[in-house]
Specification:
Chains A, B: Belongs to the NAPRTase family. Chains A, B: Its EC number is 6.3.4.21. Chains A, B: Catalyzes the first step in the biosynthesis of NAD from nicotinic acid, the ATP-dependent synthesis of beta-nicotinate D-ribonucleotide from nicotinate and 5-phospho-D-ribose 1-phosphate. Chains A, B: It is an enzyme of class 6 (ligase). The structure is a homodimer. By secondary structure, chain A is an alpha/beta fold. Chain A folds into 2 domains: about 240 residues, nicotinate phosphoribosyltransferase (Alpha-Beta Barrel); about 160 residues, TIM Barrel (Alpha-Beta Barrel), CATH 3.20.20.70. The first copy, chain A, has 16 helices and 18 strands. In chain A, the strands form 4 sheets. A 7-stranded antiparallel sheet of chain A has the order 13-12-1-5-3-16-17. The longest helix of chain A has 25 residues. Chain A starts with 20 loop residues before the first helix and ends with a strand.
Chain lengths: ~450, ~450
């Protein structure tokens, strides 16, 4: 096992601990009742997008594949479970030999989704598939929430680069996954070294107010930074007085100064003022980077301002108001017996309090209008109509327990750009509204 | 190094990667300008509580101590930094020998805090202290956000136990920290095996709708579960028809059935109806557990309902609307030279856009009224007045690089109960309002 493939910047013995206890007690009961080996189909989907959002973004798929591959109950974990007295010996023995040997299909990473989209489908015995519920949902719910926010910010930013700098606002390892998701959603770089280490995302960074305050004068601080990092560096100009700082910055670094960063105040006003000042000082190529609690709306409001790059932290890693998706993992079909050829029967919880689900294994495709623009997410349980046969949204991810869909992160990033471009124009609106595609039952 | 102490259920070579790149480039520049060894004081504080919240809860302190202790640049990390070309050789050499040798003071875990409270103070050379910014903020911002939500839920739940079950709604490792923070804030157990493994938090779990749907009838499913787990188990009764399920559950398990769980529908109505039915069936001791997107308000609304326990997921791990705190890590004082006895000079960013901070190393204490109830958070930079000398809020956490404040998680949990009990009654109101204590500058 290559632990560097676990989606973490750390060594992990197994992802099997990322499991809710009831999955194991259900396993024990199913082993006892003789239903554990019934062939089962679980699907990941969401009943709704976050309020006002036009589309969702699938992210975390690559991390799910790593997690499934490394989902093993080693002696440490088994010892813990034994000590707790949660499970009987038969169940512990079964877990000792566990590895997922079934199939997983799903929307490829970066694809967009809508309410009811069958985002991922896990097929295997009940026993092997039920155990993956928590880890799959953890990853997809977190990563997709961040990617959705990132995508909206990328739309708002247009051609200007976005820097992810939210590590300090979320759990230290969630931050690494957030950087990854932000990259899928359209960000360009990260301040987080762990994300650079693990996912090879470009890393950037300049200085904080503390660096200026450490020195006896702002000029000393700027000189120290330029001496150490070159005139291409980014100087932080809002520790005391912005106008004075910009003047000092160009004096110290020369007109070849890489960039200045503004981290507080009226960014719109300051960007215009600083641009004018830089131009007057001959620093026409010096870029302006803005940071300071930006979200997609703040980014959009700076579209007409002379801003060259945005650094985004809190609102990115917290999904801009929606820190999690509401994806669920539901049994939609299962066999009546554990015979290998037993037919699958659709199953579903009865409607109650809005938690109904549609039984049956699903296919899905995006119906296009005559201009090639998506007009509906079509989801069906029967045979796939000929017009959609070659254009199903789900692709094979795992076959017989073997991962078959590894890809570089850039592939997901490019796929997202293409998928978003295939949506109606209204998808790019930041204003609240309905899902931009209706989901139709075929 | 005991990797089990890292706050993760996994082996980690070092926490030093959980760092924003600018901390390293600032280090390089400070080494070059000769300011790196200036004695410096950084403080963690927040300018505001989340809107409407009455108090904050410090959580994650124990994880910060683990992170600081294991913050080392091993050859893998140094090789990565070297390859990226981010740093010069002198800086890389410096990092190779890094370990934090300074002092850390802070509010003990579980304590409450207010805007301006000096939650943590890191003292050392600029070089050694600046590097800890991101990892300290990541941990405190995430964990304290979850603990604050947990505390409000615990107030709403009164004597009824709260079960943390949000792992599927957040990053798989953030989930482990969230369970820990929920426990500090007043939760009783978790569904997350990793949290049980790592922090010895009691784990619980029963079954999902999929388990019922796997079987040929609800009765078969209940029988399977009771056979495997005993009649003390919790049966999920809302897959089809609740009334019928409750009848079947008691028939199968007998009146000694442990509990039933309701996961959808009108919980208030259903709880009353199910209680009455259970009583009529002689299952007077069978408990009712409710789950389904609960938050502190939903919990409070069920106060008069015959509910025995609450399971909380999404809203807990996402901080009930506030998934992060706004804690910052600011240089508040530093020496003018690197002489060991150089006096500390207060420093602060100039006010602009609300990001001003108060310079100088701070002490704090809680002023009590004649009944022993807290009436103000007093924060000062000068000598500590005699009345507060013995009652400062901050305690030593690290001395000369050695952790001096390890404690069991239960100590933090009990401290939080006591700290909350010392606040004015209005702290327990769930309604939006101002911080329940004013912060006064002494």
């Amino acid at each position: 096992m290559n632990t560097a493939d676990l989606g973490l910047p750390v060594d992990v013995p197994s992802t099997a601990l990322f499991t809710d206890q009831y999955e194991l007690t259900m396993l024990q009961a199913a082993l006892r009742s003789g239903t554990a080996e019934r062939r089962s189909v679980f699907e990941v989907f969401t009943r709704r997008l976050p309020e006002g959002r036009r589309y969702g973004v699938v992210a975390g798929t690559g991390r799910v594949l790593d997690a499934v591959e490394n989902f093993r109950f080693d002696e440490t974990i088994l010892g813990f479970l034994r000590e707790r007295g949660i499970l009987d010996d038969r169940t512990l023995d079964w877990l000792a030999g566990y590895r997922f040997r079934g199939d997983i299909w799903g929307y490829p990473e970066g694809e967009v989704y809508f309410p009811g989209s069958p985002i991922m489908r896990v097929e295997g015995t009940f026993a092997e598939a039920v155990l993956l519920e928590t880890v799959i949902l953890s990853i997809l719910n977190h990563d997709s929430a961040v990617a959705a926010a990132a995508s909206r910010m990328a739309v708002a930013a247009g051609d200007r680069p976005l820097i992810e700098m939210g590590a300090r606002r979320t759990h230290e390892l969630a931050a690494v996954a957030a950087s990854r998701s932000a990259y899928v959603g359209g960000f360009h770089s990260t301040s987080d070294l762990a994300a650079g280490f693990r996912y090879n995302i470009p890393t950037v960074g300049t200085s904080a107010h503390s660096f200026t305050l450490l020195h006896d004068s702002e000029r000393d601080a700027f000189r120290a930074q330029v001496d150490a990092l070159g005139s291409g560096t980014t100087l932080l100009v809002d520790t005391f007085d912005v106008t004075e700082a910009v003047r000092t910055a160009v004096e110290v670094a020369g007109p070849g100064l890489g960039a200045v960063r503004i981290d507080s105040g009226d960014l719109l006003l300051l960007a215009h003022r600083v641009r004018q000042q830089l131009d007057e000082l001959g620093a026409r190529d010096t870029r302006i980077v803005v940071t300071s609690d930006l979200d997609e709306y703040a980014i959009a409001s700076l579209a007409a301002a002379p801003v060259d790059a945005y650094g985004v932290g809190t609102q990115l890693v917290t999904g801009s108001g929606h820190p999690t998706c509401s994806m669920v993992y539901k049994l939609v079909a299962r066999a009546d017996s554990d015979a290998a050829n037993a037919p699958l029967r659709p199953v579903a919880k009865k409607s109650m309090g809005g938690k109904a689900s549609l039984g049956g294994r699903k296919w899905s495709a995006r119906r296009l209008d005559e201009h090639g623009v998506a007009e509906a997410e079509v989801v069906g349980t029967g045979p796939v109509p000929a017009e959609f046969a070659e254009r199903q949204l789900a692709v094979p991810l795992v076959r017989g327990g073997e991962v078959v869909a590894r890809e570089p992160l850039d592939a997901a990033r490019e796929r997202h750009i293409a998928a978003r471009a295939g949506l109606p124009m209204s998808a790019m609106q930041l204003s609240r509204g309905e899902a931009v595609l209706p989901t139709e039952q075929a």
